[in-house]
Design goal:
With 220 residues, this protein is an alpha/beta fold. It has two domains: 143 residues, Response regulator (Rossmann fold, 3-Layer(aba) Sandwich); 68 residues, Orthogonal Bundle (Arc Repressor Mutant, subunit A). The chain is 48% helix and 12% strand. It contains nine helices and six strands, in the order βαβαβαβαβαβαααα. It has a six-stranded parallel β-sheet, sandwiched between helices. α3 links the parallel β3 and β4. The longest helix is centred in the last third of the chain and has 14 residues. This is Response regulatory domain-containing protein.
């Protein structure tokens, strides 16, 4: 069993229950932090002194840390960690956005994604055991993130469109820019359909919400 585990969870009741469960599973050292910055600093310090953590369990959504706001959410935290070290990582979250799950698995190579819910603690325990055996685990309600839905795949054209949207360009301006760069399709009607599709994929309420989501995911 893992011997040194860090849990990043800002809801005390959930965090304490995870810590208690890990203790019951035989983990000798479990540390619990409430904020992303604290998690990052603990992981980095442990790495620097040659006593790294064996496992990192993190939520994705965190309340504001009024001491510091360098790392704003679990996605940013995991991205920063992956840039610095290799550590087995389990996401334990109520956020089941499929694009976000795919990003975490494909780009940041997390080892497990467990959905919070009625069966969450049971699934988390199973995930910990599987990850310890160098296996992976994903809750059933996010497995569809790994099914090849061609209409939901994000391609280079989508990224270009999102980048132009983030710069404040209107559909007409985007059409003109794409035409100048010989990128097709570049008609306003196609751009409008693509934007509607992206809103649906990311479950965004409007264009501003969409841009905020894809920036959080690191797509642009």
């Amino acid at each position: 069993m893992f011997q040194k585990v860090l849990v990043a969870e800002d809801l005390g009741s959930i965090g304490f229950s995870v810590v208690e469960m890990l203790g019951q599973m035989g983990v000798t050292q479990v540390d619990h932090v409430l904020f992303c910055d604290d998690a990052y600093q603990k992981l980095m310090y442990a790495q620097q002194i040659g006593k790294p953590y064996d496992l990192f369990i993190s939520d994705l959504s965190f309340g504001p840390d009024f001491k510091s706001d360098d790392i704003q959410n679990g996605m940013h935290l995991i991205k920063r960690i992956r840039e610095q070290m290799e550590i087995k990582t389990i996401v334990y979250s109520i956020d089941n956005n499929l694009q976000k799950v795919r990003m975490l698995v494909d780009k940041y190579e997390i080892d497990a994604y467990v959905s919070k819910g009625r069966k969450g603690p049971e699934e988390l325990k199973k995930a910990i055991r599987m990850v310890e055996e160098d296996d992976v685990y994903y809750s059933k309600d996010v497995l569809s993130a790994f099914i090849d839905h061609r209409d939901r795949d994000i391609n280079d054209y989508d990224i270009k469109l999102l980048q132009l949207m983030s710069e404040g360009n209107s559909k007409q301006e985007i059409s003109a820019i794409l035409n100048q760069q010989n990128i097709e399709p570049n008609s306003v009607s196609v751009i409008d359909r693509c934007q509607r599709r992206l809103l649906m994929i990311f479950d965004a309420k409007n264009d501003a919400h969409l841009i905020g989501i894809v920036k959080d995911l690191g797509l642009i």
